[in-house]
């Protein structure tokens, strides 16, 4: 290691400018359009001497993967983040959603917190490490993937291509208010549809009312109880009946009614068992109600994942926060899902989520992060590279 004072190689103005440029790329999912940003990041990686691959996924979608070779003495450290954002929404922003405006020490824009801030901080940290001339005992991978906000197309492709081979630890730069998160709830979304028979509203006896049948089903669902063990970090699972859609006109007996359900699960729960339980409820109602018919469609299936708090990598991260920032923190969990729901079921690897910005800013109008949190993240990322791959 040529220079221990790597922090001298951090350029704050460059970090700010990089994030502003990233915000300027409209990577709204859908459709995504992440490829131009992937290519921009790829160019930045190549400029600092990082071996880089752009994975074109088609339809203007893409991943970018940069690898710094180590001596093979330790497992690979993977930094990951997603390129896409949600839409800016219909509410007018105080500052343009793609402006990267700086006001009172905050950088505004869609994706500033979720999570181009993390991607920018990781890139600036890597550049400082390269400038310092550190020799790494293991490989380092910087990966920015497409589609996390919907189907995780990029993370799935990364895993299929062997991206996790040799990886010993993962950091995902999701906004965490510069804290450490180690667990996330699963997301299990289903659509249930009941079917009836249409008839004139004046003669309802000639039809079968799918909405009435859905009412019977909803009565069962609201009293349904999950089978689970309370998670120390994430607590209990939740269920939300999110949408109801049925009928076409007031004077027509509805022959179809659909609901969507958003379930957030905790580690150890089996989503297949939930489907079986719902199937048994449908079978029960079919035996009790004449002409009752219903089916289930899975819309989203993300496993709950967790790295235990006593894992050495988690302890390392907590030690770094104490040593570098004099903060005593305890690892927490989140109720939303990330690409860890793709990575960890594929291969059990310790994973933490650490990034600039407040998760409550994600998907909100006037999304922003503070410049201080951006720079603190750069500092943390450098420190964990040093502790994991250098010392």
TrEMBL record:
InterPro entries attached to this UniProt entry: ArgE/DapE, ArgE/DapE_CS, Bact_exopeptidase_dim_dom, Peptidase_M20, Peptidase_M20_dimer, Peptidase_M20A
Pathway: Amino-acid biosynthesis; L-lysine biosynthesis via DAP pathway; LL-2,6-diaminopimelate from (S)-tetrahydrodipicolinate (succinylase route): step 3/3
Pfam families linked: M20_dimer (PF07687), Peptidase_M20 (PF01546)
Catalysis performed (reactions): N-succinyl-(2S,6S)-2,6-diaminopimelate + H2O = (2S,6S)-2,6-diaminopimelate + succinate
Keywords annotated in UniProt: Amino-acid biosynthesis, Cobalt, Diaminopimelate biosynthesis, Hydrolase, Lysine biosynthesis, Metal-binding, Zinc
Positions of the Peptidase M20 dimerisation domain: 182-286
Cofactors named for this entry: Co(2+); Zn(2+)
Entry EC no(s): 3.5.1.18
Class of the enzyme per the UniProt entry, highest EC level: hydrolase
Family of the protein in this entry: Belongs to the peptidase M20A family.
Protein name: Probable succinyl-diaminopimelate desuccinylase
Protein species of origin: Tissierella carlieri
